[in-house]
Amino acid sequence: MSNISALQKARYSYQPKLPTALRGDITKITCSMGAPTESIADQAEVKALFENTYGAPIARFTEGSNDFASKTINAGVILSGGQAPGGHNVIAGIYDALKKANSSNKLFGFLRGPDGIINGDLVEIDDKFMNEYRNTGGFDMIGSGRTKLETEEHFEKSRKVCEANGINSVIIIGGDDSNTNGAVLAEYFKKTNAGITVVGAPKTIDGDLKNEYIETSFGFDTATKTYSELIGNIEKDANSAKKYWHFIKLMGRSASHIGLECALQTQPNICIISEEVEKKQMTLAQVVEDVTQVIVKRAARGDNFGVALIPEGLIEFIPEVGKLIAEINDLLAHDADEFAALEDGEAQKTWLAGKLSAEAAPVFTSLPAGIQAQLLMDRDPHGNVQVSLIETEKMIIEMVGKRLKELKAEGKYNGKFSTQAHFFGYEGRCAFPSNFDADYCYSLGYSAFILLAQGLTGYISNVAELHKPADQWVAGGVPLTMMMNMEQRHGHMKPVIKKALVELDGAPFKLFASQRDKWAVETAYTFPGAIQYYGPTEVCDQPTKTLLAEKA
User: Fold this and answer.
1) Has 330 been annotated as catalytic?
2) Segments in the chain below pLDDT 70
3) Residue 381: predicted pLDDT
4) Which catalytic residues are annotated (predicted)?
5) What does the pLDDT read at residue 383?
6) Phi, then psi, of 424 in degrees rounded to 5
């Protein structure tokens, strides 16, 4: 890496903070094991699929003794799925703990995600290599990929690659699907007596890999602070020019955590929460009407400008559209070859309209042609609609504009509606990790090593009490099976880690709901500014407002 910025150079020397339990002599750290656990739902079905790893206890690190130093532990690490700030620091935490335990231990990076372990494409990580990536964003150190580890062929190839390279532990850094695959891989290795442990780390900027024990996924803090800086900049511009409504679609397909956190940080005029739309069984027309009424009220005050946050996955949460998408996903999963053989887009639409249920067909035909086409685009690796390609923000702009014209004709609106559309997604995935994410990720990596060194498999690295200073964090591990339920994927029931959606009775949403009517009409914007890495703790080391509200 010959070209580095001044900030990158400075960040190399940042020493991430660790919980007290992980500091000092690594040979004085041991695991305290709790009671047996169960999956959050579908216990019998999940247990039947994980006969060798189901029911493991929660692990917490305490002072004691271990035999790390006498063991030779060679580990391989995988970055899986989309990028999230801090991934390199997870690897750094693993590397430093591994070398601290025994300098002869080795860490390998599987290149380009799960494909690396399947195909034996890997590189040994040494001091020089590791030091070029500490505290930096991106996954470019070893690359990532979206291949799913899910077949016996994949597992056998992975086992042989590990055996050929003397690797006895694997760490998968990923989201809910990647860690589900890790749990299945751990089960296979245990069942076949491969002698290879598998541990995960919770990654996703979407914030939907969380539960009672996983307080947040890494990258969420940095990504939302990055987006909030941009939203704040746009709010400042909107309040200066006073002539545009900015509609900002925010990444986060399955949950509105990003939108909610950014709203708490920036106080926009509108923030749609998908989970609330679903709970209230709102139609698309009702969503549009709610947005329209805010614009009308602000125009009555002479404010023909504003900022609206739109969650990426909104369209799936509108019940009538969500049911349509679910049917499309199932049809295209079962009849993929027949669908692919159709001549063009119009033939595909006609075929689909004939296959859909009586309830879903009219919804599909009522959608704008552009949205229809986007619903039929290539699927993602999990067989789902690629929601990020659906321009929901532009659809809402068009529909709101049409409604405002109707109101103007009725004499109920006399404002101006000029718009700008934005999509904030990739801007936040590879940002320099905040101090919080740098510290959190390093602790996750350090914890992951201790779990695998203790011979624990099928766990996800866990650091809790994150609202407190880092030295008070509590580290350990949680069995992956306890976070699972059964869901339909590709037309079949499969075990998956349950996604965490925004809880409408949770403290973060209640805080937002208590203020949004005021923010809607008034111009009450706040401007977080850029992420700060050096300076007062209250500026540099604060976690998200979501986490603080949950722990208040």
Assistant:
1) no
2) 1-2, 378, 380-383, 388
3) 61
4) 206 (proton acceptor)
5) 66
6) -100, 110
534 touches 240 (CB < 8 A): no
Looking at residue 323, its amino acid is: K
Strand partners, 473: none
> Which one of 177, 206, 303, 541 is the catalytic residue?
206
For residue 108, give the H/E element and its range. strand 106-110
On whether 82 is known to bind a ligand per the annotation, the reply is: yes
Architecture of the domain spanning 14-205+435-489: 3-Layer(aba) Sandwich (3.40)
Q: What is the pLDDT of residue 408?
A: 97
483 is an annotated ligand-binding site residue = no
User: In the prediction, which pLDDT does 372 show?
Assistant: 83
Ramachandran region, residue 118 (left: φ > 0; alpha: ψ -120 to 50; beta: rest): alpha
pLDDT at position 375 is 85
> What does DSSP assign to residue 388?
G
Closest CA to 284 of 409, 163, 204, 368: 368
Three-state SS at 367: coil
- What angle do helix axes 507-521 and 257-266 make, rounded to 10 degrees? 50
Q: How far apart are CA 231 and CA 227, in angstroms?
A: 6
pLDDT tens digits for 361-416?
Answer: 888 887 877 888 888 876 766 667 777 678 899 989 988 999 999 999 999 999 99
482 annotated ligand-binding residue: no
Annotated binding-site residue? 206: yes
Please tell me whether 541 is known to bind a ligand: no
Q: How far apart are CA 454 and CA 468, in angstroms?
A: 27
Cβ-based neighbours of 14, under 8 Å, separated by 6 or more: 134, 135, 435, 438, 533
Parse the chain into domains and list their residue ranges.
14-205+435-489, 221-426+505-526
Is 243 a known ligand-binding residue?
yes
pLDDT of residue 191: 97
